Amino acid sequence: MDTIIRSTDNTNVKRAAKLQQKKFRDESGLYRAEGERLIHDIAAWDSTLIAELFISESYYVSHNRCDFNIETHILSDIVFEKLSETENSQGIIAVVRKNVSKPLAAERCLFLDRVRDPGNLGTIIRTAAAFGFTDIICRDCADVYGAKTVRSAMSGVAVCNYPSMTITDIRTAGYTVICADLAGTSLHAYKAGKQKLCLVIGNEANGISDEILCAADVRLRIPMENMESLNAAVSAGIMMYALNK
Q1: What are the average pLDDT values for consecutive 10-residue runs of the chain, which has 245 residues?
Q2: How do beta strands 30-34 and 92-97 pair?
Q3: 3-state class of 101 per DSSP?
């Protein structure tokens, strides 16, 4: 059997543990992904993003192998449990390289204004990847590479591009800015056509800031009965699907 790490003082383990903190994710350009399906999906998208793996002794014994041709560290179950951020871990954690930010490229992009809930952010990212809104601008949002966001986004976090831009930059790039607004025109009545679109989704409690609303070319609402509003991630999914049609 390969060497098993049995101490949390191990250099590699300590380095991976530090990635639980945003400060070290920002400094290193790395983040963590936990779970077999998630790691397989990221590797299928771009295997070069995965820097190293940590697997539990139980995972190693039960699989009798590791399916990834990547530097792998085997940890005792006790050490792995201390490194894990999930209650029922599958016994595998990857250290993943963050995406290099690129200029806007997709015909549809997403501008997220202060989306603070990591679960909402991750769900939006996953849905955006599915609908081709692969350029996502995050203004004062939860950390894209935080553990809860990554779990919710699945491989979407690796698929999407996160440029640092203002709403003015987006308009200058030729995108029509569409804000999700309860006072806007019905989504059913809007015909998106073939122009480049940027959909803006606002904060869970307070919606889109006045500054961003003032920059909107179009304001749209989702027609609904019995409820005044929907969860930010649900609203984003409905609007991305409708605008693609």
Answers
A1: 89 97 98 96 94 95 75 95 94 96 94 98 98 97 98 96 96 96 92 90 95 96 91 96 90
A2: antiparallel
A3: coil
Residue 224 and residue 153: Cα distance in Å, rounded? 26
- Read off the DSSP letter of residue 99: P
Residues paired with 201 in a beta bridge? 112
* Dihedral sign, Cα of residue 136, residue 140, residue 141, residue 142: positive
Helix (H, G, I), strand (E, B) or coil at 215: coil
Provide the token pair at 47.
């295997």
Contacts of 180 (CB under 8 A, 6+ apart): 199, 200, 201, 202, 208, 220, 221, 222, 235, 236, 239
| 50-56 and 108-113 beta bridge pairing | unpaired
How many Cβ atoms from other residues are within 10 Å of residue 63's Cβ? 13
- Going by C-alpha positions, the residue among 44, 209, 233 that lies closest to residue 114 is 209
Closest CA to 154 of 108, 72, 96: 96
Q: Which amino acid is at 222?
A: I
8 Å CB contact between 34 and 89: yes
**Is 113:201 a contact under the CB 8 Å cutoff?**
yes
Tokens of 136: 């996502």
Q: Which of 99, 108, 105, 107 is nearest to 127 (CA)?
A: 108
Nearest alpha-carbon partner for 156 in 183, 177, 135, 174: 135
